[in-house]
């Protein structure tokens, strides 16, 4: 009957007689319990705000968060903009699997894979070879080139499923095996068979320094006072320091206009210099020379500088690398003319310059002085380098070594 609205009401019975109709019958709201902790809520919040997560995961995270605030499927559906059935299904999965596990789609049967496991193995093995080995001019594979080669040669190799291989499928197959044939990661080949003994010898020197310093501050001054008979010096060269000049004046920072120093892109080269430096490991004093080259004669000049800096009865032990100037005939002849025991060399192993403490000093120099440096001549560069050395020597810092110090023999 048109216009007639039917209500189901509860009859009110009193004294065995029905005396009227009561309130409408309203079904109780079914509340789905979703146990969560603070970490899960935080993760749900992050997923709901993500711009890289799949849309389905973001939507389900928003549904669960909204339901935790207001346990009403109808209200959540209106807030999120989905149907109430979608909200109910999501909540039931969350109650069954967990709030985080319920964000993913259910596994589907899907279509049987077209590319066989043998074909994938063949493709991965192909990617592990260099492209130039197969006649290509390329040094490394590209995914496009790899897909083209697989389409051309895969069927003849017994893998017809690769006849229509797409570039995107190649990326997925390689990603499954974590193979990246288009990238290069460098490593260092150990070319010194005596690396470990030489490293232990260097570490033994550093441990000797620590023991001497722990004996009670018997530090020796540069004038030779103190009576110590041993000097330990870490030495190396820093060649190729460029003397670069500007072609236009720098512009200083201006508040509200330019927050940084403005510099013209063009520059002028004035040449290069070499810094030859050695740190006294007991006092922190830096001995330095700035030269245009670093041949044997310049190295001997540095040794003469050390010879003049310490008393005649002091044994000078130098940690250095195997540069040709350090072992040349000219250097060997000069050392032979010195008193026995005056100079002792401890060489770092091949590719072991990182064991030399002076490298840390050069790193500080590069970061604090040489970075963005501009000079008008090589003479100015030399003056600024020596000014930095003098500034260090006013308050010398004693360098210490801790890495693998227990390996010292």
Question: How would you briefly describe this protein structure?
Answer:
The chain has 409 residues and is an alpha/beta fold. The protein contains twelve helices and seven strands. Helices cover 37% and strands 15% of the residues.
Question: What secondary-structure arrangement, pairings included, does this model have?
Answer:
Elements: E1 9-14, E2 17-24, H1 38-48, H2 55-69, H3 73-80, H4 84-97, H5 117-127, H6 143-153, H7 167-176, H8 195-214, E3 230-246, E4 267-280, E5 286-291, H9 296-309, E6 315-320, H10 329-336, E7 343-347, H11 358-370, H12 378-394
Parallel strand pairs: 3-6, 6-7
Antiparallel strand pairs: 1-2, 3-4, 4-5
Helix pairs in contact: 1-2, 2-3, 2-4, 3-4, 6-7
Notes on the structure:
The strands form two sheets. A five-stranded mixed sheet has the order 5-4-3-6-7, with helices on both faces. By secondary structure, the chain is an alpha/beta fold. The longest helix has 20 residues, at 195-214. A hairpin with a 5-residue loop joins strand 4 (267-280) and strand 5. Helix 1 crosses helix 2 and helix 3 packs across helix 4. The protein folds into three domains: 10-109, no CATH class; 117-176, no CATH class; 195-217 and 227-248 and 265-407, Nucleotidyltransferase, domain 5 (2-Layer Sandwich), CATH 3.30.420.10. It has twelve helices and seven strands.
């Amino acid at each position: 009957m048109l216009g007639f609205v039917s209500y189901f009401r509860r009859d009110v019975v009193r004294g065995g007689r029905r005396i009227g109709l009561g309130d409408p019958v309203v079904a109780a709201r079914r509340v789905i319990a979703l146990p969560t902790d603070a970490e899960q809520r935080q993760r749900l919040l992050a997923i709901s705000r993500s711009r890289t997560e799949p849309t389905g995961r973001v939507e389900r995270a928003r549904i669960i968060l909204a339901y935790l605030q207001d346990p009403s499927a109808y209200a959540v559906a209106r807030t999120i903009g989905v149907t109430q059935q979608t909200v109910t299904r999501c909540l039931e999965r969350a109650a069954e699997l967990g709030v985080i596990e319920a964000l993913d789609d259910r596994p589907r049967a899907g279509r049987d894979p077209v590319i066989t496991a043998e074909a994938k193995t063949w493709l991965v093995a192909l990617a592990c070879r260099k492209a130039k080995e197969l006649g290509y001019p390329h040094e490394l594979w590209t995914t496009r080139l790899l897909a083209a080669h697989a389409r051309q040669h895969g069927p003849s190799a017994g893998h017809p499923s690769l006849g229509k291989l797409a570039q995107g499928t190649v990326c997925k197959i390689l990603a499954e095996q974590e193979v990246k044939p288009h990238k290069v990661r460098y490593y260092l080949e150990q070319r010194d068979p005596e690396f470990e003994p030489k490293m232990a010898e260097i570490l033994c020197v550093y441990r000797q320094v620590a023991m001497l310093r722990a004996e009670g501050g018997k530090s020796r001054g540069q004038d030779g006072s103190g009576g110590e008979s041993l000097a330990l010096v870490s030495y190396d060269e820093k060649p190729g320091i460029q003397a670069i000049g500007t072609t236009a004046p720098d512009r200083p920072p201006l508040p509200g206009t330019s927050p940084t120093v403005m510099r013209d892109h063009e520059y002028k080269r004035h040449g290069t210099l070499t810094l030859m430096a050695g740190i006294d490991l007991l006092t922190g004093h830096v001995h330095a020379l700035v030269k245009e080259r670093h041949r044997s004669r310049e190295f001997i000049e540095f040794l003469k500088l050390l010879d003049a800096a310490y008393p005649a009865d002091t044994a000078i032990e130098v940690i250095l690398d195997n540069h040709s100037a350090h072992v040349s005939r000219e250097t060997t002849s000069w050392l032979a003319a010195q008193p026995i025991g005056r100079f002792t060399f401890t060489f770092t192993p091949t590719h072991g310059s990182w064991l030399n403490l002076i490298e840390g000093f050069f790193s500080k120099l590069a970061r604090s002085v040489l970075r963005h440096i501009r000079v008008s001549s090589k003479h100015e560069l030399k003056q600024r380098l020596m000014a930095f050395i003098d500034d260090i020597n006013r308050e010398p810092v004693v360098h210490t070594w801790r890495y693998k110090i227990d390996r010292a023999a």
